[in-house]
Amino acid sequence: MSKLKTFSVGGIHPDKHKITSACPIEDAGIPETVFVPVKQHIGAPAKILVQKGDRVKTGTLIADADGIVSADVHSPVSGEVIKIEEQTGETGYLETMITIKTEGDEWEESIDRTPDLVSDISASPEEIVNIIRSAGIVGMGGAGYPTPVKISVPAGKKIDCIILNGIECEPWLTADDRLMQEKGEQIIIGAKILNKALGIQKAVIAIDENKPQAIETLHQLTRRYVGVNIAVCRTKYPQGAERQLIAAVTGREVPPGCLPVDVGCLVQNVGTVHAIYEAVQKHKPLFERIVTVSGDDLENPGNFRVRIGTPASYLIDKAKPLGTPGKIIFGGPMMGVAATNLAAPVTKTTSGILLLKEDSVNIFEPTACIRCGRCAESCPQGLEPFAIAGFVRRGEYQSAKKIHVLDCMECGCCSYICPAKIPLTDYCKLAKYEIRKKK
Fold first, then answer.
1. How far out from the chain centre does Cα 372 lie?
2. What is residue 435's predicted lDDT score, i.e. its pLDDT?
């Protein structure tokens, strides 16, 4: 095997806790009621197309993309729309949601529900983009950027390399790992679909070295597909971030203020690419995803195929907690958010739900900064979090802006590594919020 790839600036090595990597994907079943947010993506909320009393099928379009940067939303179940109102989402903020009472599971007739693999890509490049748009596909690695916008290359730009992100560097999470193990060929065909849409021949699946089974599976499969290769990366967090992954795989650096397209790259999460396969080859909208439910005090941790809109409490019951968790997190422990409402639903960007014991989430009182510089050494963006924190404490947000706080991607490396337990990432988040609010 060739030398393992990684990025050069910053990064940390938290414990992996990938205890569910050997757990096959289970169908979570269908809850009695689902709560479907009309904004599960970056951009404008989708425009609601249904009203109370309407009956829908699984896969029915219930909210239409409102503008270019938006995404369609489809019903994850068949049943009756019982209310449309604001409810608390996973971030603790009120969000407009469509509540549907489940009645059976009748799918739209256009969806191909057979397990047969479809490898012949008959759709044209233009048709591929339109199908992805009508399927409501967004980035499923966490950002939620509408995929059709991302793959529509601006005039004067050219992409020559697609990177499929299978790194999954957050501790505990294994949804992408299992998807690569179980649906590897569908992911490869999804990569070929993107190749055709963009008119190029090169796609690279980047995988962390801590996923040996997925690596072996995809190595075997890619021998049958020209133009799709594997890049094994050394374990380091946050290797799955776009800029860091591009640097690791291609050696290209995305300058501050620029996008991956500016260096000829497109990065897509493997879950997103699998959804693209299902949309283009199976006519299936994005209304379900794989979610890891894990932690250090569960009887049945695992990876579940979950309908969008499923309450977190429903999944937590599936995992069978053995005690009272000290903290419940939506997403991973580094960039996820602490749960404030267990009735909050799974969305297109929910990669995991973690239940951690009290002694795993001890909260320490911060002490004085000792100027050790470890936060700066670990920052993958090359920032000085200790200096940013000082400016924020004094309310000097423009000074924080001058030392590039807006480049912070909120990965949590600085807070994790700080011996004084200063919440440096929170200071960076506050600075970005205040700067943007003033703008």
1. 33
2. 95
